[in-house]
Amino acid sequence: MLHQSLEFIAIFIPLYIYHAMGITIGYHRLLSHRSFSVTSKAVEYFWVLAGFTAFEGSPIWWSAMHRAHHHWVDTPLDPHSPRYGWFHSYFGWLLDKEYPKHIDPAIQCKDLINDPIYKFLEQGGKLQRGHALNFAINLSLRAVIWAVFGPIPALASLAAGLAVLQIPLMLNFTCHLPFLGYKNYQSIDDAVNVWWVGLLAMGEGWHNNHHAAPGSARTGTRMWEFDLSWYTICLMKKLNLVDRINAPKHEELVAKTSRRIAKEQIDKTTRELEIEIAAREAMNSVSKIKSQLVPETVNAR
Ligand SMILES: [Zn+2]
Ligand SMILES: [Zn+2]
Predict the structure, then answer these.
(1) From ligand 1's centre to the CA of 195, what distance in Å?
(2) Exposure class string for 33-63: b at 16+ Cβ within 10 A, else e
(3) How many A from CA of 8 to the centre of ligand 1?
(4) Average pLDDT over residues 101-128
């Protein structure tokens, strides 16, 4: 029994790390944000396969929803902001049968839709068919592992995939609850850095940092913000598997985010002024109409 438990743990831990980095490096930083580029398609598929075999679903669907999350963060158009319901943010948004009207992979994922493998996994935009195909492939893979290597490797692999499935679901929710974390950079969204998500999600829990610079391949920007995915990307660069990395420094982000906040405040003030002017003009027109009507009313009597 002890031997079997040790075997299970020895297989589970490296597979957990591999699958988790399939999401962070493959689905997220490479496909969704293009924060670095790889020297061959094989490297891209290696990491995307790691995410796909952790029940992550179609890469095009995942990227389209994630890009929409950044574009409309914490507004009613965000696919999974906890501002509009905790259950929906955690799991409910996965039950949709179709893309919401404002999300279209042909617009948001032009760079991914022509890849033949991603196109097949997308199942023509039928979301539940895409999820079902993903589950079927995942379960078949574990059946093959069972047949070839036996039950313990198969169960450890299944457990690692299902555990990693929780990472982005939990992250979408916990890293947008301000009371659970802290911000390094000013923002008008709710994204915060949550240290324990940072550890479990191979660096992805530094979510305020990520929203400050979504196109950065590094999310841990302070000394203590451990980001295993970033170190792995740097190692791939040393091995010539990566040719471009985008990673602004902490000081650049501080300056950039404060400039952005100042602009957003100006935009907000301008919008409020426009609304006030429109309201005044409407009031003036109403008063004018009233003043024209009153004498006529008096004359009519
Ligand atoms: Zn977010
Ligand atoms: Zn992102």
Answers:
(1) 15
(2) bebbebeeeebbbbbbbbbbbbbbbbbbbbb
(3) 33
(4) 96
User: What does DSSP assign to residue 243?
Assistant: E
Contacts of 233 (CB under 8 A, 6+ apart): 25, 29, 36, 217, 218, 242, 245
Task: Give distance in angstroms: CA of 210 to centre of ligand 2.
Answer: 7
**Which own/partner contact pairs does 141-148 have at CB distance under 8 Å and 24+ positions apart?**
141/53
> Cα(127)–Cα(97) distance, rounded to whole angstroms?
5
- pLDDT tens by residue, 162-183: 999 999 999 999 999 999 999 9
Q: How far is the CA of 184 from the centre of ligand 1 (A)?
A: 15
pLDDT above 60 (res 31): yes
Give the distance, in angstroms, between the CA of residue 132 and the centroid of all CA atoms in the same chain.
21
pLDDT of the residue at 274: 66
Cα(206) to ligand 1 centroid in Å equals 10
Are residues 197 and 170 in contact, defined by beta-carbon separation less than 8 angstroms?
Answer: yes
32 CB neighbour count, 10 Å cutoff:
22
Neighbours of ion ligand 1 (CB under 5 A): 191
Find the ligand nearest to 210 CA. Answer: 2
Mean local confidence (pLDDT), 225-250: 95
